[in-house]
Amino acid sequence: MRMLEGRWKLVILFHLFGGRLLRFSDLERAIPDISQKMLIQQLRQMEADGIVTRLVHHQVPPKVEYGLTAWGQSLCPALDALLTWAEAKPEGTHTP
């Protein structure tokens, strides 16, 4: 669970699910409330944990894309189940 801690990691993962490859600027536009520094930090942590892959295309200007590793993609069913669970919260209950 430590690998998924933080405010932004799950948001980033949802944007990368389905085999999508996104450039850094695409992720910035998709998640406007995250700072560049935080996005870089979260991507680097997930890359180090083996969840995200960083694909560098050697061209001018440089092009870098981020996607999920096979292991990262395997998180999709678990996170879908978590969303379903959260949406099923009974009315009238509150969180402390």
Polypeptide structure, described:
The chain has helices at 9-16, 24-30, 36-48, 70-73, 76-87; strands at 22-23, 52-57, 63-68. The chain is an alpha+beta fold. The chain has a single domain, classed as Orthogonal Bundle (Arc Repressor Mutant, subunit A). Strands 1-3-2 form a three-stranded antiparallel β-sheet. It is elongated and about 55 Å long. The protein starts with 8 loop residues before the first helix and ends in a 9-residue tail after the last helix.
Please give a handful of descriptors for the protein shown.
single chain, 96 residues, alpha+beta, Arc Repressor Mutant, subunit A, 3-stranded antiparallel sheet, 5 helices, 15% strand
The ordered string of helix (H) and strand (E) elements is HEHHEEHH
CATH topology: Arc Repressor Mutant, subunit A
CATH class: Mainly Alpha
- For the record, the count of structural domains works out to 1
Distance between the termini: 22 Å
Estimate the helix proportion, in percent. 40-55%
Which outline best applies?
A: elongated
Q: How would you write the strand order of the largest sheet?
A: 1-3-2
Strand residue percentage: 5-15%
Work out the radius of gyration: 15 Å
The helix count comes to 5
Given helix and strand content, the structural type is: alpha+beta
- Average residue-wise pLDDT: 89
> Quick one: biggest sheet?
3 strands, antiparallel
Protein name: HTH hxlR-type domain-containing protein
GO molecular function: DNA binding
InterPro entries: HTH_HxlR (IPR002577), WH-like_DNA-bd_sf (IPR036388), WH_DNA-bd_sf (IPR036390)
Domain HTH hxlR-type: 1-94
